[in-house]
Amino acid sequence: MAASSKPGSPRARDRKSQPTRLERDAFTSTSTGIPRRKSGVREGKKLEIPEDPGIRSVVTVDLLQWLEAIELQIDRVREKTLQPLLDKLSEEERIRCEAEKQFKLVEAEKEQASKECSELKAQTQALEEKLKTSQDELKKLQETQDARIVLLPECQGVRECPNKDVQEQGRPPKYTGDVLNEREIYLKNMWDDAAEQREAAMDQATVYKRDMNVVMQKNHQLEIDNAELAERLERTKSDAFTQKVNLEKAEKESKRLERGNTVLMEEKDKLRMEKAELIKKLETSESDAIRQKLDLEKAEKE
Fold first, then answer.
1. pTM of the model
2. Domain boundaries defined on the chain
3. Which of 63, 125, 168, 207 has the most crowded Cβ, counting Cβ within 10 A?
4. Pairwise CA distance, residues 26 & 50, whole Å
């Protein structure tokens, strides 16, 4: 028992190699910069820091875990805030492109509808002119028919009168019957031609009226389609404006988050530099501790 407790014995050397609580507190205070416990060491005096791989590994692991936690937090902020906004920005851009395409289609449909409306107006005007011409022709034929109705009884009366009455009137009896027959044939032919022309004009007027009704229906439908297209155009413009405002807001938010991300990255770089400095200080403290330990052992031997 007495031999084992001598200063030069292995047991005494093992006991000396173990750091005391005071030395451990002083080492922790020097490595982290935060004093954990008060010690009786005077200010300005170098602390005796032993070489303890366990303490070094714990401090290094804590720093690494802290940096990893900061990196994870930055990634979480990026995933939760920045990435949804970027996705929303992409979606708004896609919707804006679709709105522009739809706007162009609506403009093209509107131009096509205006062109068809102009063509229908031109056709309507042409049909109105034809209808007016047909009505004038029909009026002339009716006047001709009325004239035939008036002249036909007179011709028949002249044909039935005796020759002596004709002679008394100074007309040559020899040519009276032939003249009346020719006049009657002429009037009948004229009547038939007028009737045929009147029927043709009536048929043509009916066709024109039917075509006019079709044109009016098409024109009415085109007006309805034009109103719907104008409404769709206004709605598309409103949607495009809203999407533009949302896109600008998303861009501003994205820039703000990018600035925040830049600040976080700067803080991360700063933490890495601090980590490197802490590791450097730790290595310096370890070397000082080893040197102090050697000096202490040397002093004890002396």
1. 0.33
2. 47-301
3. 63
4. 10
Q: What is the number of alpha carbons within 13 Å of residue 61 lying toward its C-beta?
A: 6
In this structure, are residues 272 and 68 in contact, taking their beta carbons and an 8 Å threshold?
no
In the CATH scheme, what architecture does the domain 47-301 have?
Orthogonal Bundle (1.10)
Comparing 55 with 289, the larger pLDDT belongs to 289
User: Could you give the 3-state DSSP secondary structure of residue 24?
Assistant: helix
Buried b (16+ CB within 10 A) or exposed e, 261-296: eeebeeeeeebeeeeeebeeebeebbeebeebbeee
258-300 pLDDT, tens digit each: 888 888 888 888 888 888 888 888 888 888 888 888 888 888 8
What would the DSSP string read from start to end of 241-298?
HHHHHHHHHHHHHHHHHHHHHHHHHHHHHHHHHHHHHHHHHHHHHHHHHHHHHHHHHH
- Across 48-66, average pLDDT: 57
- The residue-averaged pLDDT of 12-25 equals 48
Identify the CA nearest to 218 among candidates 127, 132, 119, 128.
119
Q: How high is the pLDDT of residue 212?
A: 79
Show the tokens assigned to 119. 């063509």
Q: Which long-range CB contacts under 8 A does 201-204 form with residues at least 24 apart?
A: 201/134, 201/137, 201/138, 201/141, 202/138, 204/130, 204/134
